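C-alpha cells for chain A. Residues wanted.
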C-alpha cells in the first residue's frame, strides 16, 4: 500500500460517495458536506471512510492516533515483523516514516479534519518551509487547497508531490480533482489513468476517473470506471449508486432500478438512493411507487424537494436531473 499522504480528497461531490446518514447507520461510508471535503480513507480496508462535519461540530479532538493515521491513508504495521517491509516501501516512495509521528504534522492533520482549513494550510506551508522534500506535506497542503477551492495552487502542490514521489497514485488522483474543477478534463483523465497505472487497485482513482468521464458524457467509460471502483471497494455504497446513475443515462432502466433497490434494502437510511429510485420508478411509469420512495428520501433530507439543491449539491447527470425535475413538477 502506498504511504504517500494521510489525507485523500476523493471528490468535492462527496455525497455520491456515501450515505446521507451517520456512521452507525452504515459503517464505513459517511458523507462530507461542502464545507469539509477532505476525506479519510482506510488503506487497509475495502471501505472508504469520510468525516462528516456540520456547523460547529468537532470531528476529532485531541491527538491524532496511529489508528487515525491508518484511516487517513498511511499503513502502519500491526506486527513488528512488517516494519522492515514498510520502511523499504516508504523509502522507495520518497516518504519518511518520521512524518507519521511528527507533532506538528499531527496538529495540521487535526486542523484539516476538523475543518479549520486556513489553519491547516498555514501549518502545512510552515512544514514545507522546514522540509521542502516531504511529498506527503506537499500533497496534504494540496488537499486542503482543494477544499478551499484554490484549485490552481492545489494542482501546483500535487505537482511538487509527484516530482518527489512519482510512483505514488494519490497525488495524481488528487491533482485530477483540481484539474476537473478547472475544466481541464483531458488532464484530469490522464492523471487518473496514471494513478491507476501506479496502483491498479487504488479504487479512489477509478472512482475519480468515473466522475470525470461523466463530466465529458462518456457514460460507457464512466460505467467501466465505477464498476471497477465498486468491485475493489464493495463496502462503499456510493460507488454502486454512481453505477446506477450512469445506467440511467444509458437508458438501462431495469438494471439501474434493480441496483438501487438492492441499495435501499441494504441501507434503508440512504436518502439519495431513495431519491434516485423515485426518479427511476417515475420514468418507468410507476408513479405510486415513485412517490413512496421520494417520501422515504425527503423524510431523511427535505431538500430533495428543491431541484436546484439537487443540481448544485449532488450534480446528478442530465437525464436523471430531467426525470427528477418532471417528477417534482407533477408532485409538488
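Reply:
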Amino acid at each position: 500500500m502506498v504511504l504517500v499522504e494521510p489525507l485523500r480528497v476523493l471528490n468535492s461531490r462527496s455525497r455520491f460517495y456515501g450515505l446521507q446518514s451517520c456512521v452507525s447507520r452504515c459503517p464505513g461510508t459517511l458523507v462530507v458536506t461542502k464545507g469539509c471535503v477532505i476525506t479519510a480513507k482506510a488503506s487497509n480496508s475495502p471501505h472508504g471512510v469520510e468525516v462528516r462535519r456540520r456547523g460547529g461540530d468537532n470531528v476529532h479532538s485531541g491527538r491524532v492516533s496511529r489508528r487515525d493515521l491508518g484511516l487517513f491513508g498511511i499503513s502502519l504495521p500491526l506486527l513488528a515483523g512488517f516494519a522492515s517491509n514498510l520502511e523499504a516501501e516508504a523509502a522507495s516512495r520518497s516518504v519518511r516514516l518520521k512524518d507519521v509521528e511528527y507533532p506538528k504534522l499531527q496538529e495540521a492533520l487535526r486542523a484539516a479534519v476538523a475543518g479549520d482549513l486556513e489553519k491547516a494550510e498555514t501549518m502545512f506551508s510552515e512544514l514545507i518551509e522546514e522540509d521542502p522534500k516531504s511529498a506527503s506535506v506537499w500533497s496534504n497542503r494540496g488537499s486542503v487547497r482543494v477544499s478551499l477551492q484554490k484549485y490552481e495552487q492545489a494542482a501546483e502542490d500535487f505537482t511538487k508531490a509527484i516530482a518527489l514521489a512519482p510512483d505514488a497514485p494519490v497525488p495524481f488522483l488528487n491533482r485530477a480533482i483540481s484539474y476537473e474543477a478547472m475544466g481541464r478534463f483531458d488532464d484530469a483523465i490522464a492523471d487518473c489513468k496514471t494513478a491507476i497505472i501506479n496502483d491498479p487497485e487504488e479504487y479512489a482513482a477509478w472512482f475519480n476517473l468515473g466522475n470525470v468521464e461523466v463530466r465529458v458524457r462518456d457514460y460507457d467509460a464512466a460505467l467501466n470506471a465505477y464498476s471497477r471502483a465498486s468491485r475493489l471497494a464493495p463496502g462503499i455504497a456510493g460507488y454502486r449508486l454512481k453505477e446506477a446513475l450512469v445506467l440511467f443515462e444509458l437508458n438501462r432502466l431495469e438494471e439501474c432500478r434493480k441496483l438501487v433497490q438492492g441499495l435501499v434494502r441494504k441501507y434503508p437510511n440512504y436518502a439519495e438512493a431513495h431519491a434516485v429510485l423515485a426518479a427511476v420508478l417515475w420514468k418507468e411509469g410507476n408513479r405510486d411507487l415513485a412517490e413512496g420512495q421520494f417520501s422515504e428520501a425527503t423524510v431523511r433530507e427535505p431538500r430533495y424537494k428543491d431541484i436546484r439543491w439537487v443540481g448544485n449539491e449532488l450534480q446528478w447527470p442530465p437525464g436523471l436531473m430531467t426525470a427528477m425535475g418532471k417528477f417534482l413538477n407533477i408532485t409538488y
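Residues 33 and 213 are 23 Å apart (CA to CA). Residues 1-99 have pLDDT under 50 and may be disordered.
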